[in-house]
Amino acid sequence: MAIMKSVELKGLLLTCTVAAVLGALVAAIVYFSPLKETTLAPLVNLVLIIAVFVGGSYVAKTRGSRGLIGGITLGIMFFVVMFVLTLIFSPSLPGFKSFLQHLCICLIAGGLGGIFGIGLSS
């Protein structure tokens, strides 16, 4: 059981790393290109999808079984970490629509990444 948790923690670390790197890349692209800041929200959602998908794939590939559960678990863990960081660093509370949207993105991307990761494990 301890091995399973360490795999999920490694997946969470991978997800956070991918999100940070892609977030910095998107910020640099928006800053240095003629793109408007209104395109930032869809790009942030894309970064979230890619990061959670990669983490879910890693967890499912490493486990070799129960990819959907592993991916959804990773999505929930990443959402909780990001929500706590938002509450710590943001002076205002996030809106309910945004909360549900990001929760659904994390669950769906994690589940799909988990399913994809099972295909990679064999």
From TrEMBL:
The chain crosses the membrane at residues 12-33, 39-60, 72-93, 99-120. It comes from the Bacteria. The keyword Cytoplasm does not apply. InterPro entries: DUF3792_TM. Keywords: Membrane, Transmembrane, Transmembrane helix. This is TIGR04086 family membrane protein. It comes from Syntrophothermus lipocalidus (strain DSM 12680 / TGB-C1).
